[in-house]
Amino acid sequence: MQKRPVFIVSDRTGITAETLGHSLLTQFPKISFETTILPFVDTEEKIFGAVLQIDRAAEAYGVKPLVFTTFANPEYNHRLFAAHGVFFDLFDTFLDRLEKELGQESAHSAGMSHGIRDHDSYTARISAVNFSVHCDDGLHPEAYSQAELILMGVSRSGKTPTSLYLAMHFGLFCANYPLTEEDLEAGVMPKVMIPHRDRIFGLTIDPLRLQVIRQERRSRGQYAELRQCRFEVRQAEAIFHDGKVPYVDTSAASIEEIATTIIARKQLRRGYR
Amino acid sequence: MQKRPVFIVSDRTGITAETLGHSLLTQFPKISFETTILPFVDTEEKIFGAVLQIDRAAEAYGVKPLVFTTFANPEYNHRLFAAHGVFFDLFDTFLDRLEKELGQESAHSAGMSHGIRDHDSYTARISAVNFSVHCDDGLHPEAYSQAELILMGVSRSGKTPTSLYLAMHFGLFCANYPLTEEDLEAGVMPKVMIPHRDRIFGLTIDPLRLQVIRQERRSRGQYAELRQCRFEVRQAEAIFHDGKVPYVDTSAASIEEIATTIIARKQLRRGYR
Fold first, then answer.
1. ∠ at Cα A144 (A143, A146), nearest 5°?
2. Which of A12, A178, A226, B94 is most deeply buried (CB count within 10 A of its CB)?
3. Which of A15, A30, A123 minimises the CB distance to B256?
């Protein structure tokens, strides 16, 4: 397998450059990329160190490293070009066109996208994360009136990671409610949840996939038996139908896919806070 | 304030396009961007709908919307160009150069970066999120032997969101331990934590900022008094010094900045799972 060194270099967190590089490189599954991330490269010394690291990799691999950068400080960016790399710069590439289109110069300031820009919305995002932890796994249903969304599903259907992702990225107040044995036996929307019906979104899952997940974790009695998984999923879907709540199949979807699907279908606000 | 409509359009989650658009647009703080996100645009009909929405916005605002796209299917991408927008295509722009550089065609497949590519690493990431919730706020210290990192700090110093972020994004098994009243009184590394010292990272915070955060949340007795905040922060830092554990000031830092700083300083692996 072809190997290629990759560097992600930024004067701030490097998260944007990392996202860009990752998205592009996953389009080349036949190459093994060996990635080094250099965040907070914000002094002459650190730039010098980065150039050195890139040059060493070029020598060791016998090929120029791919270098993904987002420098808000263009001076540092240009100094990095002294290294023997192939450069992909998000800002350089697009900011010129944007400046012309908008008739304004860009702020050229670092850390705008992953720093704290707006204290109120930042605090709201932290509050959302705290809320999701507070209302994880059926805890504190008395706080459901504050929830913008309540995920419902059987154990291990993906409720916890999805609600935390929605809180972390979109500042959404998201609770999650695990269907209990009694709920599943009854097969109808639990009475206590009826008042919140408009904000409920169901998660369902292929029973076979559920079994695999449950087996990986623990095998408490019948918990991970296929028969039990089939029963629970069937009853959960009956509950969603009874309550007329929408639901999504999480079997082959990533957290990001589940989260963005729910936001789109519930027409909730989406945007980095 | 100048207003400008913005569209993020993708045949998958749109997260990459959203991140890049956001990073670029935050460089123009004087313009008010009104963003519409259209994920999962993966049929002829949906493309047609997207073109219509962009055209309507162009008419309503009297200016062409900025359109950030990441289509893995180039055909859809090209059809979107029929709309009256100014297009910034992240794949088109960089993939050509990458293909030439790597001597390979790109996979042109959608959902590579935010879908499930590798089941094992995806499962590991979910396990990390579950672990962080399991070990949030001092819960289940018996599981600390599994932790790759343990955040330590006073109440409201940012432990919970940071550890969840580290788990979600980097698949890191991260616990967090809140310093108790007794710990703070003692002012030395708690005995139970000494065996884990190598994996502890401290969070400190400006007492004034801590007071603001605590007041926003609740004001239980002396909890949010400045005097108390000062005492706790001073003792927490004494504990970090006593235990010789590194720490970072979270006062003016975002979750992303705190998380990436810790990863860089502890030289932990970083990479989207």
1. 80
2. A12
3. A15
